[in-house]
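Exercise (ungraded).
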Amino acid sequence: MSKMRYIAGRIMGYRLFLPLLCLAIVLLVNVVKTPSFFEITIRNGVLYGYIVDIMNRSSELVILSIGMTLVVAASGGTDISVGAVSAVSGAVAIFILGGGQTSTDFYHAPYLLGFLAAIAVGALLGAWNGFLVAKMKIQPMVATLILYTAGRGIAQLITEGQILYLRVDHFKQLGGFIPGIPLPTPVFVAILCILVTLLLLKKTALGMYIQTVGINSKAARLVGLNSTRIKFLTYAFCGLCSGIAGMIITSRVYSIDANNAGLNIELDAILAVALGGNNLGGGRFSLLGSVIGAVTIQALTTTLYAMKVSADQLYVYKAVVVILIVALQSAELKRMLKNLRVRVAVQTGKEVA
Amino acid sequence: MNFRIKKLDSKQFLLLITIGLFLVMYLIGIMVFQDKNFGKLQVFLNLFISNAGLIVAATGMTMVIITGGIDISVGSVIAMTCMLLAWMMEIKGMNAILALIIVLVVGLVYGLVQGWLIAYLKIQPFIVTLAGLFFARGMTAVISTDMISIKNELFLTWANAKIYFPFGGAVNRKGVMVYPYLYPSVLLALITLVLFFVILKYTKFGRSVYAVGGNEQSALMMGVNIRRIKLKVYAVNGVLGTFAGFLFSLNTCAGFVEQAKGFEMEAIASSVIGGALLSGGVGNVFGSLFGVLIKGTIETFITFQGTLSSWWTKITIAVLLAFFIILQSVLTSRKVKHS
């Protein structure tokens, strides 16, 4: 009995236990509600099914949540500009590749140039955020509020307020399928991003540095870490991730709508980090937790769509689930419940006596 | 005579810069758009008319920011309020006064729930109000996905009651004397603003709000019940949010899902431009009024100019935000070095 309890305690004490449990619950609902949920079929040589869809649709969120995790860990704040930065990156890419025309069906510039420009712009905007947060010591949310406000304005400036289309099959591949490969491309991009980041964090001391800076920035400086530079780098990296996500978002719809590309995705990204069991106050972090968080959000969305909930009403369920999950992870609630249990125990004890 | 010249501290300095900037922008507008009557009193009053809701929302936001929190649900709450008002009056045929009371109660409950989660469960304000944002926007869609126009007579009387000024009139093209006017919504917004200025500055509750935001630990030592103060602040903010929604609906006279999107960021931007520090403890509701007016002036500029596209509003506001935020940072870091 005590051994069982010990094992159960070990499993529940595992950092990723709660995030994984949440994901499992969301998926389990589908076993009952939509039995066809786990079916995967092959059509035209590519895989179809809700599970593939979740993996596919969650890709950009996964990529953004990677950057967001590092930002949160190092600075204890959130970057609310990632959606807007994605829109700018997408706009830059389509502007360069499409030659600034409203609708074209051939590249006006080499693809690599457009891709690199988009990512460079993302990293540059991220660096601006990093400069404000790390160097100017401005609170992250305020600092990134600037680009949150300006970002879509800048994207509209680039597209002149229009929706630019780029109807080139090659351009659609990043957000769709590469011929001959049955899995959607965004999944590979997301996995690649996770692997590269994990390698960087685990094979170098960078992960440790970020944690140290997040726990106590001053102490980190005293032991010889350049806190400013580390914070700066996380923001630049987050911008880079936004750039990649922006490319996938635009590639999916082979167009850029400056007003709506990546709209509200920053909220989902922050949510993913919180759902992953990370403390939004900085310090210890788990990259995989955030990834699981991101997939959970998309799984929830897809589940609700499968249950025929309309896109607008989806938010109600999302809100309830978010509060439940965050409240479950809250240390205060645990304490309150414990107090309650003690009080009840005392009461019943009195009655027995 | 004994004149004591108070030394300006950085907080007052920031407020002065905000007010100064507003005046300079307005004067530039008057000079540049001389031919289009930018200097007319009505143009100035329109700043208030089109932003009455934002003034109230920014007041609540400033109070929340002073405690060191944030509320990003305000835009969605406004959309929900408009929709709820429209639905209750048009579909359910309810009395306008009753509808207004119900809406305010909804705001109170909304604020209490958010406040409880933030103050008692210690979940970050950003996450709680983010869920609040989702919930309110979703509820708007649950009530109705179609647009509902408000045709309630009493409501429309409120919305269209013009209060004319007895002076400052001008003869228009038809040769009729037209006096400048205001809507009741503006008066309500300004009364709210003054009320909260007094509450924050002169009551025990108000001072506790500043104390909690300045340093929770010290506030606790002073015997302030931090949790209760926070709960109260979010509850009041919830009521202010729905009240702002009511004022907003007086302007639009309709409820639809996409309404007031991004409104929360406008309120936050107004507060920040008005000198509120998001780390808490510093802020002034009058500052946020000028934040709102500056945003309104930029929009008026763009309308008057005619050829500039709407996205310049966003870019200009962001540039101003950057200016103020960097200025704040420089000023506060200088203060730290001095002390």
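Further reading is listed at the end of the chapter. For now, observe: Chain A touches chain B through 48 residues (CB under 8 Å). Chain A has two domains: 2-308, 310-353.
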